[in-house]
Design a protein that fits this description.
By secondary structure, the chain is of the alpha+beta class. It is 18% helix and 31% strand. The chain has a 10-stranded mixed β-sheet with strand order 1-2-4-3-5-6-9-10-13-14, with helices on both faces. Strands 15, 16, 17, 20, 21, 24, 25, 27 and 28 form a 9-stranded antiparallel β-sheet that branches. Helix 1 packs parallel to helix 5 and helix 3 packs across helix 4. The chain is globular and about 75 Å long. The chain starts with a helix and ends with a strand.
């Protein structure tokens, strides 16, 4: 579970290791704190403006828009920009540092940031050119303002950008308890939730929507998000529509990581921009990084895996090199040799491709049959059974691994399927997809699949994963309940991109499971709104037949 906990911690806290960054003394800067920018809505937005004292001429401005408030450290990003000879502006989401009654996460960035850029572009210290960069919520904010681009905005660098409703606070319509932790810790600034709280919820079996009652209050952000379990108009309105993607003609640089909790959002922005704008000037960088490493300095040892030395690239520095390239006419960063730039784990090499589709030249198809990943479709129909008792809280079903590399794979109540050893080296590059055929005795379930390499030395390497709600598999904007006792198919394609060399003698392994653990919602299968369900809705255990028509497709590169 360490993988999930690390992801949630970084997403929820937005904690920044300021002490690790070399910043000059405050005496070197002109810092204007608590500046108020009035938007057309009449709501004032708080900002910090930082310039180097010796820079008196107008300069390009770098806007770092944030929903986090960390007091003394907040000028950090302004100083970083000033050190690169920009005017550095740190701007807070409406309500932050002013009046929280105005705060509504993700809902006003599109219009507010347009007004903020308009104000910045007219200041005497700005030469009329503005760039944006930053990660997570800050990454999202750049896509929100791209819905209607101000003429002064010349480039954006969305890093590990979340896509509301798509990857946060739910992934493939499966809600995370991040929806409670994130506003509690970062917005309402309440005492940290006790570590035991999700376990108390799990053991008590109360409705997911009542988890905040264990913290002693109703969390309005948590409750509002739970009221939108579909990827509906509420979420869709926050990011560009197809016609708006088509008009995004400014240069864009996206960075993310194979182990970034919000990678599927960052990847989806890139896909949609290129889908609707055939001339999109959009570069994509991805490597063995988590949510932190995809926007700052990566860990040399990530969850027990020592990354290749060529992957040790500071993503904040890359962002500024890109900004220099666009705003100051300097050389394009060397890493960006093509539109898609990815680090092939295990080779100490970066690969550069013109499109996502060109990162692979073949596909391996495996059928899930009798604990085996078969390359041939089974001639005889069959199935494997799985039983999940949601009332039993002495055991958990999950897909999380403590490290990237580990000795033993715990099935955790799920089913394990393994391929035969491979006879030649090849590489996996891309996002695996598939279609699961199943018969169940309930109306819904939340499915997880984790993909591993079982290496010749007997150790497992965690590659990537999928989690999703069966009733939304065919349309994430409309719930379609399953029919008990009837064969149903669950297609999936919204999974993470990964790239790794697979050595001769290795096997691929899938862990197929159903969610039942303290860190995401539990779908009891009654057909009611899942956040309303309790253990009282569990009734008889979930009985599953996984039919051997089920398959996964893995994109690969073969020499």
């Amino acid at each position: 579970m360490k993988y999930l906990l690390c992801v949630l911690f970084v997403l929820a806290t937005g904690t920044i290791a300021f002490a690790q960054q070399a910043i000059q003394n405050d005496s070197d800067y002109v810092i204007q704190d608590s500046v108020l920018i009035t938007t057309r809505s009449g709501v004032d937005i708080a900002a910090i403006i930082v310039r180097k004292k010796n820079n008196t001429a107008p300069l390009p401005a770098i806007l770092f828009y944030t929903t986090y408030y960390q007091d003394a450290n907040d000028a950090f990003f302004g100083k970083k920009s000033a050190d690169r000879n920009y005017a550095g502006i740190v701007v807070y989401a409406r309500g932050i540092k002013t009046d929280l009654k105005h705060y509504a996460p993700y809902e006003h960035e599109g219009t507010d940031i347009y007004d903020i850029i308009d104000w910045i572009s007219k200041q005497p210290w700005c030469d009329g050119n503005v760039g944006m960069y930053g990660g997570s919520y800050t990454g999202y904010s750049q896509w929100a303002t791209a819905k209607n681009i101000h003429s002064a905005l010349k480039t954006i660098v969305p890093q590990v950008a979340v896509m509301p409703g798509y990857d946060v606070p739910m992934e493939n319509n499966v809600q995370m308890n991040l929806g409670l932790y994130w506003p509690h810790d970062n917005i309402y600034k309440k005492e940290p939730l006790r570590r035991s709280l999700p376990f108390e919820w799990f053991e008590n079996g109360i409705a997911f929507k009542n988890m905040d009652s264990l913290a002693g209050y109703k969390n309005p952000v948590f409750q509002k998000w739970l009221s939108h379990p579909d990827y509906d108009g509420y979420w869709q309105s926050m990011v560009p529509a197809p016609a708006e993607y088509a008009k995004i003609n400014i240069p864009v640089l996206t960075t993310t990581g194979y182990y970034d909790g919000s990678q599927i959002g960052a990847l989806q922005y890139f896909k949609l921009h290129n889908k609707y704008n055939k001339n999109a000037n959009h570069y994509f960088v991805i490597g063995p990084y988590d949510h932190w490493g995809g926007q700052r300095k990566p860990a040399k040892i990530l969850m027990g895996y020592e990354i290749d030395s060529v992957a040790n690239i500071n993503m904040m520095n890359l962002a500024y090199d890109w900004l220099d390239y666009i705003l100051k006419g300097k050389s394009k960063p060397d890493l960006l040799k093509n539109k898609v730039n990815y680090q092939l784990m295990g080779t100490n090499e970066w690969i550069h491709a013109p499109t996502l589709q060109s990162t692979s030249n073949d596909t391996l198809t495996f059928y899930l049959d009798n604990k085996t990943l078969c390359v041939q479709k089974p001639e005889k129909k069959g199935f494997q059974k799985q039983t999940v008792d949601f009332k039993d809280r002495k055991s958990q079903n999950n897909y999380f691994t403590p490290e990237i590399i580990f000795d033993t794979l715990n099935a955790s109540g799920g089913l394990i399927f393994a391929s035969e050893p491979f006879e030649k080296d090849f590489s996996i590059t891309g996002s695996f997809t598939g279609n699961l055929f199943t018969t169940i005795n309930k109306k819904d379930m939340d499915v997880s699949l984790a993909l591993y390499e079982l290496m010749p030395n007997g150790k497992y390497f965690f590659l990537t994963r999928y989690v999703g709600r069966a009733s939304y598999a065919k349309d994430n904007s409309k719930r379609q309940l399953l029919h008990p006792g009837k064969i149903e198919n669950i297609p999936f394609d919204n999974t993470r991109f990964v790239s790794k060399k697979i050595n001769r003698g290795s096997r691929l392994v899938i862990l197929l499971n159903i969610n039942k653990h303290p860190f995401e919602i539990i779908n009891y299968g009654s057909g009611k709104p899942v956040s309303d369900e309790t253990t009282g809705d569990a009734k008889e255990p979930l009985q599953i037949k996984w039919h051997n028509e089920s398959y996964i497709k893995v994109p690969v590169w073969k020499d």
